[in-house]
Design goal:
With 647 residues, the chain is mainly beta. It is globular, with a radius of gyration of 26 Å.
């Protein structure tokens, strides 16, 4: 055997990479110099990387250290690791690989990060018939390797690296931005017009702490709000997005004002495209670490809208590079323009224009057949260290304050197709606003102060001792939410979130058989800046029991408005055994009939999501409704008394 060939085979065997199947690897001499720190550019994922000739894409990637400026070029930056094409500036996210199915990709990887061992995942073949294998490539500083992979299965994927030996769901620090998108389009036909939005996070806090990190910065395509790109569309457009969560946290992604279809979900190696009758119609979808989602929606109303993670920790106002400002600064900041000064992080703005020649958005000046008065006021249960607020609902039909469950916010019961005018009165000493979560309404009434609306007509914050009239006509029956959209980190756990139930015209709401279970975060005092993870159900740590009757059909409406429990799930048990119920709806939209199947009584509900189930209990006795975190930890429960006769 020729000595050069023998040396190559020996290098492959000693590297431990020969097991990369179906990738083929060719080693290269590790004689590349290590670059100095340079400026990292934000990547909008519009331009594919590499050079395509026929059915072969050639790409040379290098991992480098650079200065990242997610808060804008004039703001302080952070030194992080990022991918770049050879000879070009490093990018966050890394260079995008986008090809048609059937393309072979030749990728040369080089590690230019000083004093590090780089491990890269995801640069592997995707077959339409054989599951992808999570092969990895390990490179010491200065080393380089060439991989050849074949991409046959259309879908949304990504590659990622680490220099700290972590999984994709554990990266929080200097290597957390080592990620790039891999998009495989169908082999034939037009390439779909879509946008690729990659979520990244960075923290200077050691370890994986889900809340209250010393410094936390979330970004979309390398930028943090309000520096994220504004996405512009026209009424009637079909909008397609691919979302990649390459961060260490879960992100319940919420779209204001519209529903979207979840067309596909994946984990970076595989991607599942759902049949049309199996696609979820939602306003919020939870993306766990390392997961992907393809979504489609079509705006029928002009205006300014938000697409954001619903964890307040991920979009509330923070200082430079995600620093946690003092509480007094948070409460004062953004009082004049909440949208641009009171939020940061994982937020994208969507601007929808009317079609040329149209009359413009409909402005509702009156004509409501239903009038409500929602008063926001301090609660006697609060204290300076842990303030408490509450909603009080006055219904002109009832001529008295509406009742609520325990200490939860009052339930707003509306009718589909009936115009409503809700006068929101703020008696607090600070500004606030109300977002009508999941309701399809005019942008001006959506509740994002300083952003909702269009042009110069923007929704204001509701100043202390002032009011605002929200007008809308619910277009569908279901379960929705109203909650604050100002200083969410303080006002949400203080009590400003409640349920909306929209019933069909002519249907009388029956609170005996139509039940709401709302999960929220408690108003516990922070200790050293860390808020304890305590969940209240229906406004209390000891909520009133639910009284049910054997054989009666109940609808239970679950709502998660906690601060930091994106992977919450509800269970109904008797003597430790799960009962059975039937899922009916998600986010106020009925599930397809094929999905409404009786199953074990376990329902995941992320932050900003609602889920309705139908329950018929067959045995009398003592039951428990329990709320669990994703790891199984019990965080709340409600006693459920079931009798054979009416309670």
């Amino acid at each position: 055997m020729h000595p050069y060939v023998s040396a190559i085979l020996l290098a492959i065997a000693s590297s431990g990479i020969a097991a990369l199947v179906p990738a083929r690897i060719t080693p290269e001499p590790a004689r590349m110099p290590v670059e100095r720190v340079t400026r990292v550019r934000a990547n909008d994922n519009r331009v594919p990387a590499g050079a395509l000739r026929g059915t072969v894409l050639t790409l040379r990637l290098v991992a480098r250290t650079g200065m990242w400026y997610p808060d804008g070029d004039s703001a302080p930056g952070a030194e992080v690791q990022a991918f770049a094409e050879e000879g070009r500036a490093p990018l966050i996210p890394g260079p995008m690989i986008r090809v048609r199915a059937g393309t072979e990709v030749s990728v040369t990887l080089r590690n230019a990060i000083p004093n590090s061992t780089l491990v890269v995942h995801g640069l592997t073949s995707r077959s339409a018939t054989i599951p992808a294998v999570d092969d990895s490539v390990q490179l010491s500083t200065g080393a380089a390797r060439t991989l050849r992979v074949r991409l046959d299965a259309p879908g949304t994927y990504y590659y990622w690296g680490t220099t700290m030996g972590r999984t994709v769901g554990e990266r929080t620090k200097v290597d957390a931005q080592l990620t790039g998108a891999i998009i495989v389009d169908p082999a034939d036909g037009p390439v779909p017009e879509d946008r690729v939005l990659l979520i990244g996070m960075w923290s200077d806090t050691a370890g994986h702490v889900p809340v209250d990190r010393n410094r936390l910065l979330a970004a979309v395509n390398g930028r943090s709000w309000p520096h994220t790109e504004r996405l512009h569309y026209t009424v009637g457009d079909t909008i397609r997005w691919r979302i990649i969560n390459a961060s260490a946290d879960s992100h319940p992604m919420h779209l204001h004002g519209f529903y979207f279809l979840v067309d596909a979900r994946g984990n970076g190696l595989t991607d599942t495209l759902y049949a049309r009758d199996r696609r979820d119609l939602v306003v919020t979808n939870n993306l766990r670490p390392g997961s992907t989602m393809s979504m489609t929606w079509a705006p029928d109303r002009a205006g300014n809208w938000l697409f954001h993670c619903h964890l307040p920790d991920h979009f509330a106002h923070r200082g430079s590079l995600g620093s946690l400002p003092p509480k007094e600064s948070r409460r004062a900041h953004g009082a004049t323009n909440h949208a641009l000064q009171g939020m940061s992080g994982l937020v994208t703005g969507v601007i929808v224009r009317d079609k040329p020649g149209s009359a413009g958005p409909v402005v509702l000046a009156g004509g409501a057949s239903r009038h409500l008065r929602l008063v926001i006021r301090p609660s006697a249960e609060g204290s300076p260290a842990a303030p408490a607020f509450e909603y009080a609902l006055e219904d002109a039909r009832a001529m008295s304050p509406a009742s609520s469950d325990g200490r939860a916010a009052p339930r707003l019961v509306l009718a589909r197709g009936e115009p409503v005018a809700i006068t929101v009165v703020n008696t607090l000493d600070e500004p606030t606003a109300v977002h009508w979560h999941g309701i399809e309404l005019e942008s001006y009434f959506d509740g994002v102060a300083g952003f909702s609306g269009a042009g110069q007509r923007l929704s204001p914050a509701i100043a202390p001792r002032d009011s605002f009239v929200a007008r809308f006509t619910p277009p569908r029956a279901g379960t929705f939410i109203y909650h604050t959209h100002v200083d969410e980190g303080l006002q949400l756990p203080a009590g400003l979130a409640g349920p909306i139930v929209v019933v069909e015209p002519g249907v009388r709401y029956d609170p005996a058989t139509d039940l709401t279970v709302l999960a929220s975060s408690s108003r516990q005092r922070s200790v050293n800046g860390v808020r304890p993870l305590a969940i209240w159900l229906n406004g209390s740590a000891t909520p009133p029991p639910l009284n049910l009757q054997v054989g009666v059909r109940y609808r239970i409406r679950f709502i998660n408005m906690t601060m930091n429990a994106p992977n919450l799930r509800f269970e109904l048990l008797q003597d430790g055994t799960l009962l059975r119920w039937k899922p009916l709806a998600k986010d106020g939209a009925d599930l397809p009939v094929a999905r409404q199947l009786v199953r074990a009584a376990r329902q995941p509900v992320s932050i900003g999501e609602t889920s309705d189930v139908e329950l018929v209990v067959e045995r009398a006795g003592e039951h428990r409704m329990e709320a669990h975190l994703g790891d199984g930890t019990l965080v709340g429960s409600i006693a459920v008394h079931v009798t054979t006769t009416a309670p």
